[in-house]
Amino acid sequence: MLGNNTLDADSYTKKPVDGSFFFQDKMEFDEMVINLGVRYDYFDANTVYPSQRRNPSNSSTYYVKDSLGVPILIWDSELQDSVKVLDEPRMSEFLDSKSIYQISPRFGLAYQLGNRAVLHFSYGHFFQMPAYSAIYANDAFLVGSADYGTTMGNGNLGGETLGLNAQKTVSYEIGLWQELAEGMGVEVNLYYRDIYDLLTVAVVTTYNQINYGLNTNKDYGNVRGLEVKFDFNKGGFRTNMNYTLQYTKGNADNPQQTFNRAGSKIDEVNKMILMSWDQRHTFNVSAGYTASNYGGFFTGYVNSGTTYSYSPMTGSPLVNINLAPNNNYKALGYHVDFTGFLSLPQVFGANARLNLSVYNVLDRYNENWVNSTTGRAYSDIVEEGDIEGHRSKFNTYDDRYKNPGMFSTPREIKIGLEVEL
């Protein structure tokens, strides 16, 4: 393996320090329950970072020049010679990373309305540190000669300019649970989440005009939604239903989006866009019966498609339009699962139970990802010239766009025997 002084390897040993603790108190009254808490998180990357991002590894040396562009010389008495005056602001020194901490308050309230209803509310702050790779990648701080060919980690934790911070989520939720009859209840929840300081890759230009990427925080997202739950339990029969309406938006879908678009000479996204995990509707229903010796449950899932980035075919008028990412939705998907058990007669004092699980009972092929030109799996826009230009003795042109991994897992059956001695 090549050493860490080349762009072909990234070898380092780091010893970060990560710690946390929390306090929580639960106060119960006749008609109300209050939960109060606070969490403290501490992190020290235990690394260094360059002070001059435009010359991070001091691969270039810069000197102070006069108005004519000639380097300024001074007399060095020790060297007995004239030496150039170093342009200190353009040279990097390696600074120790700072330790950072976060304080996250949490609050929850449940208030009983009569004998058959409960109103609840919650509020909290949640922090998530970036992955270690976002801090330590390219530990030698080398920048390649190709534009947009290098991405660098960032040990400047807590820095205000091109620093790296923890992702912060502020969450609000309010809901009402109502008992409709004995064993039957319905719950409605509204929630909203602000997500600040999402990881992004900023573009930095060196003094010799090479652009590279630096992990930092910039992006923002939010999630808002409505959730409705229904449950009914009577005897051995149980059924649960859950429906969620959700909207997720942000100004970047992934950390690399801004950097990749800049490298491809595509305009930066300057508005809130749908996230790749945005799924407008999800509906789940579970029903089954459990007795002492046997039981079985069916669970069905119906989900609207998540987003994908539609790319028009060559020659379409849409080619000249700067389309935002995640501008269309995949097709709706659904599947059904089954789980069941059957207790077997006792043999030699041992109890045994036969378990059966069937995933995707209907063998439904849901599209996990699709071709960008058609929005469907196993389909693409193919012209005669494409087929004529295909030269292979091992596959056909269809294999270029037909990938079995585009679909969800087919039917899967698991049978197990559980023995209790």
Short structural summary:
By secondary structure, this protein is mainly β. It has 3 helices and 21 strands. It has helices at 132-136, 257-263, 384-388, and strands spanning 17-28, 32-44, 48-50, 73-76, 81-84, 94-96, 100-112, 117-128, 151-152, 167-181, 184-205, 211-234, 237-250, 273-274, 281-290, 294-303, 307-308, 328-329, 333-347, 350-359, 412-420.
Describe this structure in words.
This protein is mainly beta. The protein folds into 2 domains: 1-62 and 81-278, Maltoporin, Chain A (Beta Barrel), CATH 2.40.170; 299-421, no CATH class. 4% of the residues lie in helices and 48% in strands. It contains 3 helices and 21 strands. The protein has a 15-stranded mixed beta sheet that branches. β4 (73-76) and β5 (81-84) form a beta hairpin. It is extended. The mean pLDDT is 90.
* Intertermini distance: 53 Å
Strand content: over 45%
The CATH superfamily of the largest domain turns out to be TonB-dependent receptor, beta-barrel domain
CATH class of the largest domain: Mainly Beta
CATH topology of the largest domain: Maltoporin, Chain A
> Whole-number radius of gyration?
30 Å
Largest sheet: 15 strands, mixed
Which structural class do you get from the secondary structure elements? Answer: mainly beta
Determine the fraction of residues in helical runs and give it as a percent range.
under 10%
| CATH architectural category of the largest domain | Beta Barrel
